[in-house]
Amino acid sequence: MPRLQWTRASSATLLALVGALSLTACSDDDDTTPDSGVKVDAGTTTDAGSDAGTTDAGSDAGSVDTGIAWDGGSAGTFSCEGKTQTTLNFAPGQEEAFQDQVNTLAECTTITLAPGTYTFDNAITIRKNGITLVGAGKGAKGEGTGGASSTVLVFTNAAANSNGLDVVGDRFTVSNLAVWNAKKDAIRVESSTDVVMRGVRTEWEKADQESNGKYGLYPVKSKYVLIEDCEAYNAADAGIYVGQTEYAVVRNSIAKQNVAGIEIENTKFAYVLGNTAQDNTTGLVVFDLPGNPIKGTDIRVKNNVITGNNRNNFASVQASSSTVSQVPAGTGTFMLASRRVELTGNTWGNNNTVDVAVLSGLTIDSNPANWSAAGGNWASADVYIHDNTFQGGSGDNVDNGNLSQTRRPLGAALAALYAYGETQGTLGVEHLVWDGLDPVGHDRAQINPINICFVNNTLPASTTTAIVDLDLQAAATLAGQGNLAGAWGKTRHYAANKAEFNCAGFSPALTIGDAIQ
């Protein structure tokens, strides 16, 4: 039975469509932490095999060779080979000595933390290259204290607005520990090359709290990043985030109870493989924001489970990025201002608002001039969605029925449209939603001008239409004139096998992760 719980809409409700075209956006990277002076030359030519077989303090022992140059190996120029390497060991109760040593670290140092609980009143700040921080294990969800085989770093009483781990340094590795109740970001790594986060858990004790830290794992403005076998819970923005970065792998990790589970933002060349994103507001997102200099492109999203992401949005409008705070609960995946994105082998289902949405950046900032930093990157194009499974149970309770025109106008607009659509026999939002905005001013006779390919996906047997073009601009205009029927009439609904969407991806095809089957 459908779970439609929307109030019958009036044209006034649909005015939210107009607001959806002019939402205010701000960068997810709004931190004011001073730059340590460690810089990354994004134009440096790198030798992906330069450190193979070395015994660097930041080595990637135990990683699997996937054929990806930045997959936990050394793709950057910094190496500890031939340099003095030091190991420091600490146990619970030695937090002060640990902090003192961290403040005076030499490069190429390995820090080993014995099992147990470590309590800190400020961030652990690292500003050297070649640092490895390793504990005894990440423990299980909900464990705020370390055990016989786990290391938990507790920041419950730390200074306000401080991170847990705060790192700027090339060839940084953190593994086998948990960060609990960080005031801001649990593990923040900025302006760094060759970053590995493996077997790490980030968590806040209480669910659904605006006051929780924004991000769990947060590599930003970096290059060659691997996040593997990690877990993230209860972040008030994103559990696992990669932003303004070139070359990243996020693999075999779990994100639950966050606003956004996994977020890839303004990033070039990312591979998101084998992760689980469940019980978030939105499961897995790929988008660009205006004002950031990197134009995101070439993203492969493969073999992820993105189901049951119906947690009410608890992001703070003031403290969070406005983009995430405005996402309606029940959003499986959205792509915004994204290009050359391939989604394959994934599973979606029971996402109350929509399984997959493709949106223009103009829905959050309608002024093209504000997108000039990355060369005008507002448009979405070349999205290849193939060989996935859509289980059903999605699209029948937008934003869990908790509609807000002011905080989440696009969700309110979608709910209003489909409440009217129900009277016309359409009982739920289709599996794939396109807002119909890009390219600007395109001929509406073109059914799929931005090359969204929807091919060979498994759908519920009851599926009639799988794809919708909202024609958002036209619908907004008609709604503003009080013409609700006309607004719905502008939407176009297609079967999964619609010829214009039955395309073969884009050219050249992605090569990211082709060595992994």
TrEMBL record:
Composition bias, Low complexity: 41-63
The keyword Nucleotide-binding belongs to this UniProt entry's keyword annotation: no
Pfam short name (any one): Beta_helix
Domain Right handed beta helix: 170-324
Bilayer-spanning residue ranges: none
Gene3D superfamilies, A to Z: Single-stranded right-handed beta-helix, Pectin lyase-like
Keywords: Signal
Residue numbers spanned by region Disordered: 28-66
Domain of life of the native organism: Bacteria
Signal peptide feature range: 1-27
Protein name per UniProt: Right-handed parallel beta-helix repeat-containing protein
